[in-house]
Amino acid sequence: MADPMPEIKSLALSVAAWPARILFPPVCAGCRRQVTQTGALCGACWPKLPFLEMPWCEVMGTPFSHDFGAGFLSAEAIANPPPFNRARAAVAYTGIARRMVQGLKFHDRTDLAPWMARWMLRAGAELVADAEVVVPVPLHWRRFFWRQYNQSAELARAIASLSGVPFAPMAVRQQIGLGLREREDNVRAAFVVPPEAEIDVRGRRVLVIDDVYTTGATVAAVTRALRKGGAGAVDVLTFARVLPGDFRPDDTDTI
Fold first, then answer.
1. Nearest 5 degrees, angle CA 99-CA 90-CA 187?
2. Which of 33, 123, 132, 165 has the least C-beta neighbours within 10 A?
3. Averaged over 128-156, what is the pLDDT?
């Protein structure tokens, strides 16, 4: 005879969630229309989500307008090779995607993280398949104090949970003694792998998670810290990417 307890627990959880759904019904992450599930997009906003698709640069993940064949690299990857091995992003940082990032980052919409993570897994399937540990870009303590959470860690936790790859939230931290302005002015030396965390990354292929890839300076600095800490290889996966020509002043929150 089947054990009825899982069904009973599921029903109890559903009943317990009813008051919250009545008081705070789920709304579209793009336009705030009511939807059936938390974190979902409505039928009008879904087609406007600017997914990044192949063909793209195999190193930078920057989309090409035409397929130039396997192994073709972008001018950026050739002229200024990054310290990481590969980078991928799920969407372009514009429109609906931009509002989702800002909702997660500035408006406590942590409920969006699992949805965003699923799209990241789609875009970075090859990276996730090779990854041995998932590491978020750390948030400066002042920003963490005001937000009470790290949006990159929320995404990384969801990706680790969905993929089964181990999650190491404390593998990289801010350099002690560097203030926020110093970090932005000297981002290259802003991060470090603490001695007690080296066991998490030494000899492993690390997947670094962030919400937005803007100039690449932050993930490059995290990559250098990980390599110094013994990481065997480093890939980068973000939810959104600022494409060339689409940079805005407020994009500097993630550089």
1. 80
2. 33
3. 88
